[in-house]
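Notebook entry, structure prediction.
Reason for the run: the old model in the group folder had no record of what sequence produced it. Starting over properly, with the input documented here first.
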Amino acid sequence: MKAGRLVILGLILGLGLSGCGRSRAYQLVFTTSIEEDQEIHFINENGARRIALTHNHAWNVNPTWSPDGARIAYASNCNGNYQIWVANLNHNYQTQLTNTDQDNTNPVWSPDGRKLLYITNRNIMAMNADGSNPLQLTNQGDNTDPVWSPNGRNILFVSNRDGNLEIYRMDPTGNHQINLTQNRASDDSPAWSPDGTKIAFHSNRNGQDEIYTMNADGSAQINLTKYPGGNYSPAWSPDGRKIVFVSRRDGYEEIYVADYPGGFQQRLTFIDQNCWPSWSPDGRQIAFASLRDQNWEIYIMDADGGNQLNITNSPLNEFEPFWSPRPVSDTGK
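New structure, fully documented this time:
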């Protein structure tokens, strides 16, 4: 493992602030394209205090917050192949966790923050959060999209080992791998409900791209959207009562939200292309990337689509926003 200093100059988690007279705000981490590089930045939800997490003239991708909000894992090819790195925001340093001759990407934190999943050579790996004890969990076909269950006892993933994309479940050691969808079509993008009893996913089994739900054991697979034109990228609200998704049903990629289990659907965006919806931890807002300003920008809006605000206001292309798991002290504009 290699350690290095972060390029950030500010104290990201509000350290050194008295907190007196300060409001509390969430932050969003996102990827930004700078010339031929991709760097990771983050910013307060009101657009204040934009700070570069990386600045190494490389491709830095897949940023994700640890459950306690103190670390950000990401993949970077700054030393050649893509490797998994973790930035410790409390102590202002970053550590390279993997060091192999293959690409390692798409880190995913366990709910307790003690382990990371990642992808290498078409397989899913697990390791401790300090990079120790790497363990290969899959060994058949191409395997992607690993997602921890809320209680950390199961992992969903997508595999083509049976000839088409299916959603599987396994335990954290890679044992008991079970095909949940068992359908000849493509099933992918699994997302656990907050209570771990349901799974939302994308499928084209009826000839259209639709959002489906099923029980955690694969039973009761139901088409939630039932609308042609392309529906994908489902994400549950924190209370489990709504699912946000992207749809092309009206010609552009727009963000919709569906009630669960009722299925009533509401369009939230109406201007050009909008992707990568992400719920705030309190369920009151949704972050997303929009092309409405001729380049991709990070926006936030209320959960009903109101008060859409461009928080990056940059000429760069910026995408894949993810909320911090908890609010921090807001220093204002």
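Summary: The two ends are 37 Å apart (CA to CA).
The old model has been moved to the deprecated folder.
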